[in-house]
Amino acid sequence: MVKNKNTEEKILESAREIFVHKGFEGARMQEIADHAGINKALLHYYFRGKEKLFEAVFKDTIQQIGPALSAFFNEDIPLEVKVWKFVDNYLEMIKKFPQMPLFIMNEISTNPERILQQLNFEAYLDFQKLEKQLMDEYEKGHIIQVDIRHFIVNIIGLTVFPFAAKIIIQKNLGIKDEDWLQFIEQRKKVIPQTIMSWIKI
Q1: Angstrom distance (rounded) from CA 28 to CA 47
Q2: Cα separation of 73 and 124, whole Å?
Q3: In the chain, where the domains are located
Q4: Could you tell me which residues come within 8 angstroms of residue 184 by beta carbon, excluding any fewer than 6 positions away?
Q5: pTM exceeds 0.90, yes or no
Q6: How far is CA 32 from the centre of its chain?
Q7: Which long-range contacts does 179-185 make (Cβ < 8 Å, 24+ apart)?
Q8: Helix 29-36, helix 50-74: angle, nearest 10
Q9: pLDDT on residue 90
């Protein structure tokens, strides 16, 4: 039997949804097969077991994040342009995979060892170039002296948190489903402005 790319993508998407809501331990292969509209035997043909399926889903998820992070750290453009571009690109990416933050956070909280085994951010992350850029801007008198750790956590946290806490944010701030995407579009301006207001002199 020849594997079908559309079927494989359908399985990965169904598995991602089930893993997000139930975690690795709570997910069942039969439930994933039902959600994907296939039988369990076909699911096992594509992915030999739940561990292999989880690895594939996680690898696919990280591959969505990696290039955006790599561009953020390594692209040779002005710092402020980099911040605006990163926020725009990262929010667009998460809009396509809105369950991604919860998926990763759920697994970090339940089984950090498995997540650490799967992560390969070393392939994407190079702090040195961004750290040098921050220092150059500081020495030119353009920004305050910034700890790169806080810089990275702030920009990623401000970007990811609304998706991770979407239900709470919508309920407590009165944001209706039909207004959610407009709210996220507004975040594309608010986040860079917040970051640059913090570091600019």
Answers
A1: 13
A2: 9
A3: 58-199
A4: 91, 95, 162
A5: no
A6: 22
A7: 181/95, 184/91, 184/95
A8: 70
A9: 87
Q: Which residues contact 3 (CB under 8 A, 6 or more apart)?
A: 45, 46
Contact between 36 and 10 under an 8 Å Cβ cutoff? The reply is yes
Classified by CATH at the fold level, domain 58-199 comes out as Tetracycline Repressor; domain 2 (1.10.357)
CA dist 118 and 62 (Å) reads 9
Predicted local distance difference test score (pLDDT) of residue 25? 81
Residue 90 to residues 12, 101, 137, 168, Cα–Cα distance (Å): 21, 12, 23, 21
Six-digit token string for 135: 């220092």
DSSP E strands, 38-180: none
Q: How confident is the model at residue 61 (pLDDT cuts 50, 70, 90)?
A: confident
